[in-house]
Amino acid sequence: MSHDHRPTPLPTTPSSTQPAFSTTRACVTFDGECVVDEATLSIAPGEFVAVLGENGAGKSTLIRALLGLVPLSHGNVRIHGTPVEGFRDWWRIGYVPQRLLATGAVPMSVREVVASARWGPASRFRLPRKANQESQRRALEAVGLWDRRDARLDTLSGGQQRRVLIARALATGADTFVLDEPTAGIDSESQERLAETLGALRDAGDTVLFVTHELGALADLATRAIVLGHGEHGSVRYDGPPRREELAHHHAWHHSNELGPIDPTPTLMEG
Amino acid sequence: MSLLSYDFMQRALIAAALIGVVAPLIGVFLVQRRLALLGDGMGHVALCGVGIAFLVGAAPVPTALVAAGVGAVVIEVIRARSRTAGDLALALIFYGGIAGGVLFTSLAGGKSSAALNQYLFGSLSTVAASDLVWLGVVALVVLGVLAIFGREIFVMALDPDVARTQGIRTTGMSMLLTVLAAMTVVIGMRTVGLLLVSAIMIVPIAAAQQLTRGFRTTAVVGVVVGEISAVLGLVVSFYLDVPPGPSIVFLSLALFAVCAAIALPLRRRHNRLAASPAPHSSARS
Question: ABC transporter domain: which residues (chain A) (predicted)?
Answer without folding.
Answer: 21-255
